[in-house]
Structure formats: structure tokens, C-alpha cells
Amino acid sequence: MPSRLEWMIAARYLRPRRQEGFISVIAGFSLIGIALGVATLIVVMAVMNGFRAELLGRILGLNGHLIVQQTADPKQPFDALSRTLTEVRGVSRAIPIVEGQAMAMANGVASGALVRGIRPDDLRSQPIIADKILRGSLAEFEGKDAVVVGRRLARKLGLVIGDTITLVAPQGNFSPLGTLPRMRGYRVVGTFNVGMYEYDSTFVYVPLGAAQVFFRLGSDVSAIEVMLEDPEELALARQRVSEAVSHPIRIFDWQQANSHFFTALQVERNVMFLILTLIILVAAFNIVSSLIMLVKDKGSDIAILRTMGASQFSVMRIFFFSGTSIGVLGTLIGFVLGISFASNIDIIRVWLEGLTGTELWAAEIRFLSRLPAKIDTAEVVMVVAMGLVLSMLATIYPAWRASRLDPIDALRYE
Question: What is the dihedral of CA 354, 360, 362, 363, to 10 degrees?
């Protein structure tokens, strides 16, 4: 166990005299480097986790975990198929939908839109829509001419509650004069904001019957969205659904439909972790250089300690404590800064945007309207442990070199 004398000498070496100011500067930069490295790593990992969680929550909140489509004629009535799917173990809901592309127009402005037909009760049962209604009400979402649109799409087209939005179908009407566009006007009864740019700027919800008429599907639907109790159990759920349905069906899951998003996020997360780890590693090398300089400067002190009876291990522990103290203090400062910054990152982002007058988080590019952060305790512990371990490893060679110093050589020219 380290003695009180060793702690006292190690602490004294951390407060160098005036002539040792350069060593103190290097040690200070080492501490700052480790603190910034740990803090940056915590913040970046929190943002990556938050981005993935927010993206996954919104995608799974608006889309089914499994998409089931019938591939054979005659097709089974969608109500019967929905009931069959609902009875499958692990399935919480089965929602028939009609989905297709269309052109949305209002006030002389046009924009592409994704029209989704859904039964009013099913839309009201989706919290991500029902709890995010900004204007209007889902109580009026019924009949043949009611629609609910995303906030950004409504703003782009200049729509308010009660206005008419015109949808242009991709398939036109054939006439003696050629193909004419097929248009239909709908009354806006509500606007929603789920916080994801792609959905808020393109989605238009229409009652299921009206969507079947608009896309000329008769009594058919485009697909049935299946919601699972556990979205991660995709393989088992696909097997159960396939066994429960006797008709030929095609099944897509949410991982297949959004694999490019989450693969890119995982690759970016791993690369950022590796790059930011190098910051801590560089700071650890600064500890090595500062301790080597300190050992060289304190050669006579080491020799005196050895002649007074200090062992090699005692000298080694003194310099080990000196270097480790820099790493521990830097890691703790980085931990506090990283947790504080990650917990208030969106507030800081808004403050910086107001201060600089520039947009730091473009929703059009990053899909989400706010900067998310989710602190993972296990990852924070791993980052802190890595900072401490690298700091300790950086002190081993200088401390060993100090313990190997020969007192005779050190005092020869004194």
C-alpha cells in the first residue's frame, strides 16, 4: 500500500516551482486534452444513441413492424385477413392501409405527397399521430372528403383548418382528348407534427374508403400493417404470420425497409468512437512526455530518496501517482462536462443558433426537428474507464524509468 509520504511527494510534484513552468504547461494541456476527449466522446455517443432512438420511435410509430401483402387472386377479404393476423401470438394490432403517391396542390402551390388511407379508429389509436395534433381534431376525420396533413406540408401549401387540398392521382382518366389528370378536393380537418421532416412534409391521411375510391382499388387495400408486442422478434413473428395465413403473402419488416438508415448510423457511430478515442490517446501521450521531463528534472531528488532508503517500488509509485492524478482529474472533469452538455444539448443548440443567426440543425437533412441525446450509462462507464486506463498505462514507463535511476550517476555532478 502507498505510504503517506509517497502521496505527499507525488502531490508536491504536481505543483512545480517557477523554474518548472514548462512541465506544468504540458501537464495542464494533458489534463485539458483528456477532459475534452472524454466529454466529446460522451456527447457524441449520446447524440448517436438519441438520433437512433428518435428515428426508430418515429418510424415504428407511423409504420408497421411487418407489412403483409397478398400476392394471389382471388384475394382474401382484408377484414378477415386482419382478424387472422390479430390472433397470431405476439401481434398487438393489424391495420389495413391504402398507400400511394400523389400530387398535392393548394393556393397555386404544388408538392409531392404520400397519401395513406386508414380507418378513422385505427388512426386515433396511433399515439404518435393522435397526441401530435396541432390544429383541428381527429373527431372530424371521417366521411369521404376529410384529410389530416403534416405541419410542414400545410405550411408549404398555405393550408389552415377548413381549407381544401387537391390531390392529383398518378393514373389519369382516358378520354377522346387523351389522358386527363384525375383530381379530387379534400377538406383539411387537422395538422400533425411528429417531429420527423420526411413525414411532416409529405404525409396526407385519408379515410380508408375515400383512399380506395381515389386509387381505384375497389374493396382491396395496399397492405396490412402488423404491430408487434416486441419489434425485435422479427424472425419469430414472420414465421408465425406465414403459418397462420393460408393464402400466398409477401412480408416486409421494418429492418428491411429502413436498413440503409440504421446501417449508416451504426457505421458512423463506430467511426466517430474510433476518431474521438484518439483524442484521449494523444492526451495520454502528453502525460508520458510531461512525466519523462519531470523524471529528468527530479533526478537529484530521486537519488536523495534512494540514498535515504526509498525502494525502487516506492519511487515508481510516486511518479505513478503524479501521472495518474492528471488522468483521473481530467477524466472526472470530462465526465461532468459531457453529462451536462449531453443533458442540455438541444437548449445549447437553440442558444447558439440565436447567438450566431445560423441554422445548426437542418431538419431537411437530418430528418428530425430537434437535436436528440440519449445517455447510455454503460457507454459512459466504458468511456470513463477507458480514460482512466489509458492515463494509468501512460504513467508506467516514466515511473519505471524513475525507479531505475542510479543514485550514483544522478549525484555525480552535483
Answer: -70
